Amino acid sequence: MISIKERLSPYNEALGVLPFRKLLIGQGLSMAGDAICLAALPIALIRDGFGGDVFGFIMAAVGVGTVIGALAGGMLADRKSPRQVLIYTDTARGLAQLAAVALLVTGAHWGFLVLAYLIFGIGIGVSKPCAQVLLVNLLPKKALVAGNGAMNFIDNLVAILFPATLGVFIILWDPVWGILIDGLTFFCAAIYTAQLPNVGHHESEEEFSLREALNGITVVVNNATLLLGFAATLVVNVLCFPIFLVVAPYAISQRFSEDMWGYCLAASGFGACIGSVITVLASGHERLVGLAVTCGLFLAGAMALLGLGTSAWMAILGATFVGIVEASWLTGWATAMQTHSPEKDLGKVVAVDTFVTSGVHPFIYLGSGVVGGIVGYSQTLTLTAVVSAVGTLLIVLTSLMFMPRSARNDQVQ
Known about the structure:
The chain is mainly α. The chain contains 17 helices and no strands. The protein folds into two domains: 182 residues, Growth Hormone, Chain: A (Up-down Bundle), CATH 1.20.1250.20; 205 residues, Growth Hormone, Chain: A (Up-down Bundle), CATH 1.20.1250.20. The two termini are 14 Å apart.
């Protein structure tokens, strides 16, 4: 029997590393700014007379930029100092937000805002692989899951606290200040990142190429654990969770009230905080297939509660389960990529993951909204529960057919 103290030891080891604490503080500040901006940006656009279509174009620009940046980020993370690249991307995102503030204040055409947020999205795409590689360089291998869990915990915690506190005051005063604060937090993050040791510097004389950027696909295909993990990501993160964000607000509002969706969103954030801790305590990344099956089944149950639940507590419980699943899987999957990928290819593996998820998300957002409007929003959530259950069954069957028995046993025990 493993004691609680032993299960918490990865947290103690990760938080005992001073550079990681600085990285956590810096990235936590930018996460808090992002949470405030997410609440403030649409209100700022509304007050400036822009409709929902403009906000849609802006979010699409962020998504497209993330896809573009992911490929470049994968190569840079494996070739250059990830610390230095992260400083540049944080600075670039801070400047993009300051440019957005200037454009809103001066009443510029919304097309310039789309351009600013395209650059912002490129910064996101480049930074994701670099942040993963930097984490590997800073922490010992057995503390990686705690490092990923801590990052996810802070991200979800600020997503709950800041929009409902500081974000409300800023929106009531002037929402443009929320965008400005977000920009400034990126400069703070860059300052903290600059204090980190310059480890993991990889120099290469090979030319940049799209073929090299896509080498992460080869790494994933040749590793049974990564391949099954990638398939589970397609079920949990790419297919089902975006449907929750798009369809559930309408389903919950129709069956209960608009206020209930706010409670469900808060419950999802609370569940995500719990999920990030559970994966660390259970060492879920060491049993990736078992984690995938658990997350898939819980997600199916969550969508069924959201689609069929007749009481408010059912909807809130379903939303809580969605948050637990999201954070549990993202924590375990990020750690699995870090531990199963060759160090020289980790950035490219993360880049492929970011490229696929960010590239497919807009289509899922659009498709789920269309399907929800045709067949009904509650019915779409119920259908998603079935898809999640079937996808989970396919993952189990695939692991039984293609994974060696010894590896499969390690992944589920």
